[in-house]
Design brief:
Strand order of the largest sheet: 5-2-1-6
CATH superfamily: Ribosomal protein L13
Number of helices: 5
Strand content: 15-25%
Structural class: alpha/beta
Order of helices and strands: EHEHEEHHHEE
Distance between the termini: 36 Å
Largest sheet: 4 strands, parallel
Radius of gyration: 17 Å
CATH topology: Ribosomal Protein L13p, Chain: A
Length: 142
C-alpha cells in the first residue's frame, strides 16, 4: 500500500463566504484558519497549501466576551527607539474594522512562507458588500 502525497497541481480551490455578524472573534478565527489551511479536506497535507479562498463579510459586527473591548491591546513598533504604539480593540474596530479578524487569523497560521501564502487567500470586508461575486462564493456556515 502506498502513501498518498498531495501535489500542488491536484488542489481544487473553492471560494467560501463567511458572515461574521454576531460571531465570537477567536472561535471565528480558528474556523477560518482551518479553511485557509485546507484541514477540512481529505487530501490535506501539511507541506502543501490546499486551502480555499475565504471572504469574510460584516467583520465590524464581531462579538467579544468579557471586558475585552477595553482591555485587549494591539501593539506595533516602528523600528525606532520609543516607537512602540498600542491601540485597544474598541479603537481598532472604529478605525480599521477589518484588522482584528485579519490579525486573529494570521496568528493561527504557520509562521513561514506557506503561512504568508495562505493569508493572501483571506479577504475581509467591514460591510456585507464585496467585489468577489464573479468567483461565485458559496456560503459557509460556521
Amino acid at each position: 500500500m502506498k502513501t498518498f502525497v498531495t501535489k500542488p497541481a491536484e488542489v481544487q480551490r473553492k471560494w467560501l463566504i463567511v458572515d461574521a455578524e454576531g460571531k465570537t472573534l477567536g472561535r471565528l478565527a480558528t474556523q477560518i484558519a482551518v479553511l485557509l489551511r485546507g484541514k477540512h479536506k481529505p487530501i490535506y497535507s501539511p507541506h502543501v497549501d490546499c486551502g480555499d479562498y475565504v471572504v469574510v463579510i460584516n467583520a465590524d459586527k464581531i462579538k467579544v466576551t468579557g471586558r475585552r473591548l477595553d482591555q485587549k491591546q494591539y501593539y506595533r513598533h516602528s523600528g525606532y527607539p520609543g516607537g512602540l504604539s498600542q491601540i485597544s480593540l474598541k479603537d481598532q474596530l472604529e478605525k480599521f474594522p477589518t484588522r482584528p479578524v485579519e490579525l486573529a487569523v494570521k496568528g493561527m497560521l504557520p509562521k513561514n512562507r506557506l503561512g504568508r501564502k495562505m493569508i493572501k487567500k483571506l479577504k475581509v470586508y467591514a460591510g456585507s458588500d464585496h467585489p468577489h461575486e464573479a468567483q461565485q462564493p458559496e456560503p459557509y456556515e460556521l
